[in-house]
Amino acid sequence: MAGKLNLIYKTARGQFTSGINDMHRPIALTATKGMKELSEKWKIAGRANITGAGLGDKQAKALRVDYFPELPKTSADAAVFLHHKTHYIGVFEDGSTISGKPLLWVPLPSTPTPRRKRKQPVVKSFFALIGQKPISMKRKNASDPPVIGANIRRAKNSRAKKVSLAALKRGKTGAKGVVTTVPLFVGVKKVKEPNLLNLTAIHKSFANQVGKFYTRNFKDRK
Q: Where are the extended beta strands (E) located within the chain?
């Protein structure tokens, strides 16, 4: 009767772990490099979409990428989180209707913008800035939207369409010219923000290329 045969193989201490790590390391490097390369291209395309929509460099730079794990760490499960710091950016992606309470006061094209804020003027802060109270202007027809303005002093025969912030701050002061009320804001019940951005489509396009970026970086390591 044949006796039993038991074979036992033992690796040297740390040999198995070292072998696994040697196999895992290139995978982690490939995954991390591929995700970094993809996200950087996505960020460039996304920022170009934002500036192309006329939202400016500040909004474009608010599009950020966070890496997991944080670089320079690597992982076979590397991931990126793409996000925008401005919470209302989705309005320009999906389009949105903003309703007034009861009205929204929209600045006219001729209304000056405070230089320091670089934003569209808001009624309350704007009139506080120029030191005047809003004046309701007469409407030709009852169906016309309401318009509010402020007083300035200008030359009698002036045909200037735009008014400066300095002139509004001076108001009625001065001895020359005549006092006139210039329109600044128009009241509307609601404003429809158009669909300006296409970030979701850009995201899907690059998400579908994850395998390509991984494969390319894996081949580069051979």
A: 63-68, 79-84, 96-107, 135-136, 147-154, 178-193
- Asked if the bond preceding 72 is cis, omega within 30° of 0, the reply is yes
Cα–Cα distances (Å) from 93 to 49, 136, 191, 196, 200, in that order, read 11, 35, 16, 6, 8
165-208 per-position pLDDT tens digit: 999 999 888 768 888 899 999 999 988 878 889 999 998 998 88
The candidate with the shortest Cα–Cα distance to 132, out of 151, 153, 154, 112, is: 151
Are the C-beta atoms of residues 155 and 127 closer than 8 Å to each other? no
> Is the distance from CB of 135 to CB of 150 less than 8 angstroms?
yes
Cβ distance 106 to 188 under 8 Å?
Answer: yes
Triad 104, 84, 215: Cα angle to 5° = 145
Whole-model pTM: value is 0.59
For 162, the 3-state DSSP assignment is coil
Describe the strand order of the beta sheet including 147-154 as a list of residue ranges: 96-107, 178-193, 147-154, 135-136
Residues 129 and 77: their CA atoms lie apart, in Å, by 53
